[in-house]
Amino acid sequence: MGSPPRREGGLPPGQRLQRGWPVTHYGPVPRFRPERWEFRVFGATADGDKTCWNHEGFSGLPYATVIADFHCVTKFSMLGVEWGGVAASTLAKLAPPADDVTHVMVWAEYGFSANLRIEDFLDDKSVFATHKGGEPLTAEHGFPVRLIVPRLYAWKGPKWVRGVEYMTADRRGFWEERGYHNVGEAWREQRYSYQEQPGDGPEL
Ligand SMILES: Nc1nc2c(c(=O)[nH]1)N[C@H]1C(S)=C(S)[C@@H](COP(=O)(O)O)O[C@H]1N2
Ligand SMILES: [Mo]
User: Fold this and answer.
1) Ligand 1 site: residues with CB under 6 angstroms?
2) pLDDT in tens, 161-177
3) What total number of domains does the chain contain?
4) Ligand 1 pocket test, candidate residues 155, 162, 176, most atoms within 8 A of CB
5) Which range is the signal sequence, renumbered to this chain (predicted)?
6) Is 66 part of a structural domain of the chain?
7) Does 202 fall in a domain?
8) What CATH number corresponds to the domain at position 40?
Protein backbone atom coordinates (compact mmCIF):
# COMPACT_ATOMS: atom_id res chain seq x y z
CA MET A 1 0.00 0.00 0.00
CA GLY A 2 2.96 2.40 0.42
CA SER A 3 2.87 5.51 2.55
CA PRO A 4 -0.57 6.94 3.12
CA PRO A 5 -1.36 10.21 1.35
CA ARG A 6 -3.42 11.96 4.00
CA ARG A 7 -3.76 15.25 2.22
CA GLU A 8 -6.59 17.64 2.79
CA GLY A 9 -7.69 20.76 1.04
CA GLY A 10 -7.71 21.19 -2.70
CA LEU A 11 -8.83 18.70 -5.26
CA PRO A 12 -7.69 15.08 -5.26
CA PRO A 13 -6.46 13.73 -8.61
CA GLY A 14 -9.12 13.54 -11.31
CA GLN A 15 -11.73 15.59 -9.40
CA ARG A 16 -13.35 18.89 -10.42
CA LEU A 17 -15.19 21.53 -8.44
CA GLN A 18 -18.94 21.53 -8.52
CA ARG A 19 -21.38 24.36 -8.05
CA GLY A 20 -24.43 23.28 -6.13
CA TRP A 21 -24.92 19.82 -4.72
CA PRO A 22 -26.08 17.12 -7.12
CA VAL A 23 -28.14 14.20 -5.87
CA THR A 24 -26.63 10.78 -6.59
CA HIS A 25 -27.98 7.47 -5.42
CA TYR A 26 -29.38 4.14 -6.48
CA GLY A 27 -33.11 3.53 -6.05
CA PRO A 28 -35.91 5.66 -4.59
CA VAL A 29 -35.75 8.21 -1.76
CA PRO A 30 -37.18 6.54 1.34
CA ARG A 31 -40.00 8.18 3.25
CA PHE A 32 -39.05 9.06 6.82
CA ARG A 33 -41.42 7.50 9.36
CA PRO A 34 -40.28 8.70 12.80
CA GLU A 35 -42.38 6.15 14.69
CA ARG A 36 -40.67 3.28 12.86
CA TRP A 37 -37.18 4.73 12.63
CA GLU A 38 -34.36 3.45 14.75
CA PHE A 39 -30.58 3.59 14.61
CA ARG A 40 -28.99 0.32 15.65
CA VAL A 41 -25.40 -0.52 16.57
CA PHE A 42 -24.84 -4.27 16.49
CA GLY A 43 -22.42 -7.05 15.56
CA ALA A 44 -19.15 -7.38 17.49
CA THR A 45 -19.87 -4.88 20.25
CA ALA A 46 -17.68 -4.67 23.36
CA ASP A 47 -20.40 -5.99 25.70
CA GLY A 48 -22.15 -8.24 23.16
CA ASP A 49 -25.34 -6.14 23.30
CA LYS A 50 -27.04 -4.02 20.67
CA THR A 51 -27.66 -0.31 21.15
CA CYS A 52 -30.76 1.30 19.62
CA TRP A 53 -31.84 4.91 19.45
CA ASN A 54 -35.18 6.14 18.24
CA HIS A 55 -35.23 9.46 16.42
CA GLU A 56 -35.72 11.49 19.57
CA GLY A 57 -32.86 9.67 21.27
CA PHE A 58 -30.55 10.03 18.30
CA SER A 59 -31.37 13.73 18.02
CA GLY A 60 -30.27 14.14 21.65
CA LEU A 61 -26.78 12.75 21.10
CA PRO A 62 -23.83 15.19 21.32
CA TYR A 63 -23.79 17.46 18.27
CA ALA A 64 -20.56 18.45 16.58
CA THR A 65 -19.66 20.34 13.43
CA VAL A 66 -16.94 19.34 11.03
CA ILE A 67 -15.57 21.29 8.07
CA ALA A 68 -14.66 18.85 5.36
CA ASP A 69 -14.52 18.14 1.66
CA PHE A 70 -16.81 15.81 -0.29
CA HIS A 71 -15.57 13.80 -3.26
CA CYS A 72 -17.89 11.77 -5.48
CA VAL A 73 -16.29 9.03 -7.55
CA THR A 74 -18.12 10.44 -10.59
CA LYS A 75 -15.53 13.27 -10.22
CA PHE A 76 -17.40 16.15 -8.67
CA SER A 77 -16.10 17.59 -5.41
CA MET A 78 -17.23 20.18 -2.90
CA LEU A 79 -14.66 21.81 -0.62
CA GLY A 80 -15.00 23.20 2.90
CA VAL A 81 -18.53 22.04 3.63
CA GLU A 82 -19.86 22.44 7.18
CA TRP A 83 -21.46 19.22 8.36
CA GLY A 84 -23.30 18.91 11.66
CA GLY A 85 -24.27 15.76 13.46
CA VAL A 86 -22.90 12.99 15.65
CA ALA A 87 -19.19 12.26 15.28
CA ALA A 88 -18.61 8.60 14.46
CA SER A 89 -16.06 8.51 17.28
CA THR A 90 -18.75 9.72 19.71
CA LEU A 91 -21.07 6.97 18.56
CA ALA A 92 -18.27 4.43 19.05
CA LYS A 93 -17.76 5.71 22.61
CA LEU A 94 -21.46 5.37 23.40
CA ALA A 95 -21.67 1.91 21.80
CA PRO A 96 -18.09 0.60 21.74
CA PRO A 97 -16.74 -2.08 19.39
CA ALA A 98 -15.01 -5.20 20.68
CA ASP A 99 -11.20 -5.08 20.65
CA ASP A 100 -10.92 -7.29 17.57
CA VAL A 101 -13.16 -5.20 15.33
CA THR A 102 -11.36 -4.32 12.08
CA HIS A 103 -14.20 -3.03 9.88
CA VAL A 104 -17.72 -1.70 10.04
CA MET A 105 -20.66 -2.12 7.71
CA VAL A 106 -22.88 0.94 7.64
CA TRP A 107 -26.45 -0.01 6.76
CA ALA A 108 -29.08 2.23 5.20
CA GLU A 109 -32.70 1.98 4.10
CA TYR A 110 -33.48 -0.66 1.44
CA GLY A 111 -30.39 -2.67 2.40
CA PHE A 112 -27.83 -0.24 0.96
CA SER A 113 -24.49 -0.76 2.72
CA ALA A 114 -20.89 0.41 2.70
CA ASN A 115 -17.92 -1.23 4.41
CA LEU A 116 -15.21 0.84 6.05
CA ARG A 117 -11.98 0.13 7.86
CA ILE A 118 -12.44 0.89 11.56
CA GLU A 119 -9.72 3.57 11.38
CA ASP A 120 -11.55 5.38 8.57
CA PHE A 121 -14.80 5.11 10.54
CA LEU A 122 -13.13 6.53 13.68
CA ASP A 123 -11.35 9.34 11.80
CA ASP A 124 -12.00 12.62 13.61
CA LYS A 125 -13.75 14.00 10.50
CA SER A 126 -16.19 11.11 10.12
CA VAL A 127 -19.66 12.27 11.09
CA PHE A 128 -23.22 11.00 11.00
CA ALA A 129 -24.49 14.21 9.50
CA THR A 130 -27.97 15.53 10.17
CA HIS A 131 -27.18 19.04 8.94
CA LYS A 132 -25.24 20.78 6.20
CA GLY A 133 -24.39 24.46 6.51
CA GLY A 134 -26.59 24.64 9.61
CA GLU A 135 -29.70 23.39 7.79
CA PRO A 136 -31.24 19.95 8.23
CA LEU A 137 -30.47 17.62 5.32
CA THR A 138 -33.15 17.35 2.68
CA ALA A 139 -34.77 13.98 1.98
CA GLU A 140 -32.75 13.48 -1.24
CA HIS A 141 -29.48 14.12 0.58
CA GLY A 142 -30.17 11.60 3.32
CA PHE A 143 -32.52 13.03 5.96
CA PRO A 144 -32.59 12.25 8.82
CA VAL A 145 -28.97 11.07 8.88
CA ARG A 146 -26.19 10.17 6.47
CA LEU A 147 -22.56 9.32 7.00
CA ILE A 148 -19.76 11.62 5.82
CA VAL A 149 -16.22 10.20 5.64
CA PRO A 150 -14.28 12.98 3.94
CA ARG A 151 -11.14 11.03 3.06
CA LEU A 152 -13.12 8.38 1.19
CA TYR A 153 -15.26 8.75 -1.92
CA ALA A 154 -18.82 9.67 -1.08
CA TRP A 155 -20.34 6.26 -1.86
CA LYS A 156 -18.71 5.21 1.45
CA GLY A 157 -21.18 7.58 3.13
CA PRO A 158 -24.62 6.03 3.02
CA LYS A 159 -27.63 8.32 3.09
CA TRP A 160 -30.64 7.33 5.25
CA VAL A 161 -28.43 5.38 7.67
CA ARG A 162 -30.17 2.96 9.99
CA GLY A 163 -27.35 1.00 11.55
CA VAL A 164 -23.71 0.21 12.12
CA GLU A 165 -22.45 -3.37 12.24
CA TYR A 166 -19.08 -3.97 13.88
CA MET A 167 -17.14 -6.69 12.07
CA THR A 168 -14.08 -8.76 12.92
CA ALA A 169 -13.35 -9.39 9.21
CA ASP A 170 -13.97 -7.35 6.10
CA ARG A 171 -17.01 -7.85 3.87
CA ARG A 172 -17.95 -5.86 0.77
CA GLY A 173 -20.84 -3.43 0.79
CA PHE A 174 -23.24 -2.57 -2.03
CA TRP A 175 -20.93 -0.71 -4.43
CA GLU A 176 -17.83 -2.58 -3.31
CA GLU A 177 -19.46 -5.73 -4.74
CA ARG A 178 -20.32 -3.89 -7.96
CA GLY A 179 -17.03 -2.62 -9.27
CA TYR A 180 -15.98 0.11 -6.86
CA HIS A 181 -12.79 -0.02 -4.83
CA ASN A 182 -13.02 -1.74 -1.46
CA VAL A 183 -11.12 1.04 0.35
CA GLY A 184 -11.97 4.14 -1.71
CA GLU A 185 -9.44 6.76 -0.58
CA ALA A 186 -9.92 9.84 -2.74
CA TRP A 187 -6.31 11.05 -2.44
CA ARG A 188 -5.08 7.66 -3.65
CA GLU A 189 -7.64 7.73 -6.44
CA GLN A 190 -8.93 4.30 -5.42
CA ARG A 191 -11.99 4.36 -7.67
CA TYR A 192 -12.50 0.85 -9.08
CA SER A 193 -12.09 -2.68 -7.82
CA TYR A 194 -9.69 -3.54 -10.67
CA GLN A 195 -7.20 -1.13 -9.03
CA GLU A 196 -7.18 -3.11 -5.79
CA GLN A 197 -3.88 -4.45 -4.53
CA PRO A 198 -3.51 -7.62 -2.46
CA GLY A 199 -4.74 -6.79 1.05
CA ASP A 200 -7.15 -4.05 -0.08
CA GLY A 201 -10.18 -6.28 0.33
CA PRO A 202 -11.84 -9.69 0.29
CA GLU A 203 -11.82 -11.49 -3.04
CA LEU A 204 -14.61 -10.61 -5.44
N1 LIG B 1 -28.47 4.91 0.82
C2 LIG B 1 -27.64 5.33 -0.17
N3 LIG B 1 -26.64 6.17 0.15
C4 LIG B 1 -25.79 6.61 -0.80
C5 LIG B 1 -25.91 6.18 -2.14
C6 LIG B 1 -26.96 5.28 -2.45
O7 LIG B 1 -27.14 4.84 -3.60
N8 LIG B 1 -27.82 4.89 -1.44
N9 LIG B 1 -25.03 6.63 -3.09
C10 LIG B 1 -23.75 7.15 -2.62
C11 LIG B 1 -23.03 7.90 -3.63
S12 LIG B 1 -22.42 7.01 -4.94
C13 LIG B 1 -22.75 9.24 -3.51
S14 LIG B 1 -21.76 10.06 -4.62
C15 LIG B 1 -23.36 10.05 -2.44
C16 LIG B 1 -24.07 11.22 -3.01
O17 LIG B 1 -24.63 12.01 -2.01
P18 LIG B 1 -25.54 13.23 -2.42
O19 LIG B 1 -26.67 12.70 -3.27
O20 LIG B 1 -26.01 13.82 -1.15
O21 LIG B 1 -24.68 14.15 -3.22
O22 LIG B 1 -24.26 9.30 -1.66
C23 LIG B 1 -23.85 7.99 -1.36
N24 LIG B 1 -24.79 7.44 -0.43
MO1 LIG C 1 -20.97 8.48 -6.09
Assistant:
1) 21-26, 72, 108, 112, 141-142, 154-155, 157-160
2) 999 999 999 999 999 99
3) 1
4) 155
5) none
6) yes
7) no
8) 3.90.420.10
Give the residue numbers spanning the domain of 166.
35-195
Question: How many angstroms does the Cα of residue 162 sit away from the middle of ligand 1?
Answer: 14
Residue 56 lies in a domain: yes
**Ligand 1 atom at minimal distance to the Cα of residue 142:** 20
* Encoded amino acid at 79, one letter: L
Task: Give the strand pairing for 135-136 and 38-43.
Answer: unpaired
Q: Residue 5: what pLDDT?
A: 63
Confidence check: pLDDT of 1 > 50: no
Q: Is the pLDDT of residue 122 over 60?
A: yes
Q: Where are the alpha helices (DSSP H) in 81-174?
A: 88-94, 118-121
C-alpha of residue 199 to centroid of ligand 2, in Å: 23
Quote the CA–CA distance of 17 and 48 in Å, as a whole number: 44
